[in-house]
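User:
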Amino acid sequence: MSTSINLAGNGGSPSVFVRLRALFPAHPEWWAWAFSMLAWMWLVVNLFSSPGQAGHPGSVTFCTSAGAILKTGLPAYAILGISKWQFILSSVPAAISNGWLPWMVMVIAMMFPLLNEPVTHVAFSVKKKDRTPGILTFLLAYTFVWTSAGMLFLLLPLFVDTILAGQTNFVNSLVMASGLLLSAALIWHPGRPIRLTKCSLTIPINIGGWQLYRDSFWYGLKMGLACLSMCWPPMAALSLTHHNLILMAAVSIVIVYERYLLPHTSKLAGYAWLIIAGILFSIQMV
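Assistant: Predicted structure:
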């Protein structure tokens, strides 16, 4: 008498294994969320495993105040006996080389959860066997856009910290919160709902061949630019705060909530940015 494993379980109801096998193909966006979760894990581990790098350019820190001030109370460029601009130019290579990986991880952690619709579009536009390479090609192009733009975002804190070195705590705190204040102001821009709609646009994707990869890559570039046009102010704010992990989590909650749970014309996210900016300003003033 032969025996077999009853995957359906008692009463003919599908087992957990069967339900999971059906769930993943039906929801290909899990790819983006899986990469995001891995990136968040990396950020948390990096934070607690490298406490000595809190002030290092590009490192992920809990809180770093503006101004390149050393323990002597003097700006770094003053200690070195050079001008502000000489100090900035000499620090650019180190800022980029040390910051590009944390920046890319931050983008994956925060931006990938916004890609449910584009990833699903890619997955169901191609053959089942080509879903994985199509999705990965799309995500690669999307990350390329943000990584390229990241070169400017990485230089922003270097420029601001050096220029503001020696300024009052009020000025430094206001600059820290400026990115979030700008995010709030742009919520009321009349063209914002149109730009937000572009984050859900689709394009025809060839069902197979090398054209599949061409179309998926091009689609990733378009979605990357669309997201960049929407999310650059809060990402700039995170750069100014040197990738504050708590602030990253708060910003992620707001942008994901706005993306999926609010109508395009809602102003609720603007009030959220104002509240977060106020809290950040108060903390920096202490």
